[in-house]
Design brief:
alpha+beta; two-stranded parallel sheet; about 40% helix
C-alpha cells in the first residue's frame, strides 16, 4: 500500500469533530467503503450537512464528478450552478472498420493510411447527404448524430455499401436518446448505449436498439431480431435488431 494511503487511514479526527464551529459539508458516495466514516463525521460535527451521492467510487475525482461539484458550488455560493450544456434528443451512430489491425498489418502503414483517408472522405460525404453531424473520429470510424433515426439508419447502410467495394467492412450501431451537448462534443447514457450496440454488431451489420426500431415503425425499414443483451455499464436488458432492408 502506498505510504500516502497508509497515512490517510491512520488519521483520527474524532476528538476534534465536536469543536468545529464553521459551516461543514460532508460528501460521500453511497456504495463506498468510506460512506460509514462520512456519516460518522457528519453526525459528530455540529450543524454539518451530509450529502450522499449515488455511485461506488471512493476517490472524489473518479466516476461522475458533476453532482459532487454541484453540491460544493451550491454549499459555497448558496446557488445551484448554471450548467453550460444543452440536452437534446438525437440518434447516435457509431461506425468502425472490422479487422482494422489485421488490414493495417497486411497492407502496410502507407497503404493503410491512404485507405483510411478514402474511408474518411466517403463517410463525410454520406453524413452530409443524410444531414448527420460528425462529432469526432474514432480512429477507424466515426461518432455522429442525427435528428431523425430513419436518416441515421439509411446513412449507416450507405456508409457500409460505399466502403464494401474498397474491401472495407464496417459495422454500425445506433441508439436514440437524450444526449448532453457541450461545445463540439456529446456525452450521456445514450452515447454509451450507442457504443455498446456498435460493439455487438457483426461485419457489414447495422445494429439498432429497440428504441430506434420502435421509432421508425411504418418507415419501410425492415429488421431481424437479434435477441436480448446486457450492455456493459448500462442497467437492464436491451433488445437488438439488425437492419435487413
Amino acid at each position: 500500500m502506498d505510504w500516502r494511503m497508509r497515512a490517510s487511514f491512520e488519521v483520527d479526527l474524532r476528538a476534534i469533530l465536536p469543536t468545529i464551529r464553521v459551516p461543514t459539508l460532508v460528501l460521500c458516495r453511497q456504495d463506498t467503503l468510506i460512506a460509514p466514516q462520512a456519516r460518522y463525521v457528519a453526525e459528530h460535527t455540529p450543524d454539518a450537512k451530509l450529502v450522499e451521492l449515488q455511485g461506488g467510487d471512493d476517490l472524489f475525482f473518479a466516476g461522475d464528478t458533476t453532482p459532487l461539484l454541484d453540491e460544493i458550488e451550491e454549499f459555497l455560493t448558496g446557488n445551484l450552478p448554471a450548467h453550460r450544456s444543452d440536452r437534446l434528443l438525437a440518434t447516435v451512430l457509431f461506425t468502425d472498420v472490422v479487422g482494422s489491425t489485421e488490414q493495417a498489418a497486411r497492407l502496410g502503414d502507407r497503404r493503410w493510411r491512404e485507405l483510411l483517408a478514402t474511408h474518411d472522405d466517403l463517410v463525410r460525404s454520406e453524413l452530409e447527404r443524410f444531414r448527420g453531424r460528425a462529432v469526432r473520429s474514432t480512429g477507424d470510424g466515426v461518432l455522429a448524430t442525427f435528428d431523425g433515426p430513419g436518416r441515421a439508419i439509411r446513412c449507416a447502410c450507405a456508409i457500409r455499401d460505399s466502403l464494401q467495394p474498397l474491401g472495407i467492412d464496417v459495422r454500425a450501431g445506433l441508439h436514440t436518446g437524450e444526449i448532453e451537448v457541450t461545445g463540439d462534443d456529446i456525452a450521456g447514457v445514450a452515447v454509451h448505449i450507442g457504443a455498446r450496440v456498435s460493439a455487438l454488431a457483426g461485419a457489414s451489420e447495422v445494429l439498432v436498439s429497440s428504441t430506434v426500431r420502435d421509432l421508425v415503425a411504418g418507415s419501410g425499414i425492415e429488421f431481424e431480431d437479434r435477441g436480448d443483451h446486457q450492455l456493459k455499464g448500462v442497467p437492464g436488458t436491451w433488445r437488438m435488431y439488425a437492419v435487413t432492408g
